[in-house]
Amino acid sequence: MARGGNIVDYHSCEFFPERWFDIVFVLRTDNSVLYDRLQQRWFDIVFVLRTDNSVLYDRLQQRGYSGKKLDDNIQCEIFQTILEEARESYKSELVHELPSNTPEEMEDNVDKIIQWIEQWSVANSH
After folding, report:
1. Looking at 25-39, 40-54, 94-108, which range is the least confident one?
2. How far is it, in rounded angstroms, from Cα 95 to Cα 19?
3. pTM metric for this prediction
4. CA dist 78 to 7, 45, 69, 104, Å?
5. How many CB atoms lie within 10 A of CB 59?
6. Chain-wide mean pLDDT for the chain?
């Protein structure tokens, strides 16, 4: 980042310090236009990792999250924001909710995703 000339594409602003940027562009679109564009098959599958709120709270605190950042993440999980957005944006057969409460569940999720990638690769190799 120090050399400059970088493009940063990220879903949030608070993660990066202001001193990193000479200019910031916010790209916006009418949701109906975005929905029409996403109707095209850009995604073959969507995984939404879910965590019980008490587990998530402790996990985020251990990562150093506090204040608004911690509250926003917990609230997002309580209201199932990401899951609902995925369900509203994509066909139901593409969206898969994966519990991620324990190390065993996380490992199982990695195995499921790898298995899906391997199957997709075989099915789509030309």
Report:
1. 25-39
2. 38
3. 0.62
4. 33, 23, 14, 22
5. 15
6. 78
Return the HEC string of the chain: CCCCCCCCCCCCCCCCCHHHCCCCCCCCCCHHHHHHHHHCCCCCCEEEEECCHHHHHHHHHHCCCCHHHHHHHHHHHHCCHHHHHHHHHCCHHHEEEEECCCHHHHHHHHHHHHHHHHHHHHHCCC
> 82-116, pLDDT tens digit by residue?
888 888 877 788 889 999 999 999 999 999 988 98
Q: Mutual orientation of helices 67-78 and 53-62 as an angle, nearest 10°?
A: 160
Using CA atoms of 89, 34, 17, 60 in order, give the dihedral in degrees to the nearest 10: 0
Token look-up 């993660």 returns: 15
Residue 76, token pair as written in the block: 């997002």
